[in-house]
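Our platform keeps sequence and structure together, in a single record for each protein. Because each token names a local backbone shape, the row as a whole describes the fold. One such record is reproduced below, unchanged from the form in which we store it:
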Amino acid sequence: MNTSKQVNAMIGLLGLLVLVLAAYAINEGNRMEAAREEILERDIVRGSKMFVNNCRSCHGMTGKGSEEGAFAPVLHNDSFLIIDEHNQDFEATPAGDAAKIRTFLRTTIACGRTGSPMPTWAERYGGPLSDTKIDQLVTLLTTPGAWEIYNEISDEHLEEVYPDIHDHAEAFQKDTEATLVKLADVPTLTVTEANCGQYTGTTAAEFRVRDPFVPKGSAPVEGVATSKGKGPVSGPAVKGIAVADFFRANCAVCHGQNRQGGVGPALTPARLTQADEFYANTIANGRPGTAMPAWKTTASLSDEDVQNLVTYIKTVNP
């Protein structure tokens, strides 16, 4: 009798164990998703803090470059976004594209950009950031919705630095004035002389003009260069890229997103009073003793490419 009860008890315990294991297995997906989201948010928070402390002075208080008075390129940029498989509205970014985007951003942060004030940030090249910290910055730049978390971190920073200023707009303006590099000071910044990475303004252009938002049900196109627009560029182009996009990706880092000047001079129609040949020669052959490269050599620009750039800067107002 006792043996029978023991057997029944063991069967009952085994049944309970099976139920517990089944419940755990059913919930494992939810648990892993919650853990994934927790890690992602943690990395975005840490990346946001690094952006606040290291990047805003050149790229803008919210990463929007010239839109908020900064001289360096826009980093709050939809073109960098990587859509994951959990997104309900848009197709996931192809794995190959996602890897290329992350590599581009990691390399640019780690190595800097030759001929511009963008320094090398990686510890292995003499900078202050570990690979983990660089990856956290990349997570901020590539995750949809991450800039909303950044805004919360930025607000916390304002409260810490300006505890006596209770008007948010006033505190933000004061912080902006204290943080942004003044345009007049840009030419005095140290220019990076050598880039440990493989990217130039030309090879970076494809990452700055892509459209990450492919509606659900559409067939995503592999290849970041072709993800924005499936046909040829209409209007003047340079290396197959619309001339304005080429300028933003290649020239704006020195001449400003609005062509207002920076390391290089302002390039607006009102200021460009020389003949076309002067500017064509400068673009094609560079300017010795300055950061201006010979684009005909470094980027294999054709005479037509050069002329399209000259026409753009001399006739199109920012």
